[in-house]
Amino acid sequence: MSGFWRLGSSEPHRRSRLAGWVVCAFSALGCVSPRSHLVVVSHAAGESLEAGHHEVAIELYQAMLVRHVDDPLADVVLNNLGVSFENLARFSDAEAAYRLLLRGHPHSRLAPNAAFRVAVNAERSFRFEVALWQYADLVARFPEAPDAPLAAFNRARLLEGLERRAEAARAYRLYAERWPDSDDAESCLRRAAWLDGSRKLQRDAPSPVPAPPLLVPDGVVEPGAS
Question: What is the pTM assigned to this prediction?
Answer without folding.
Answer: 0.71
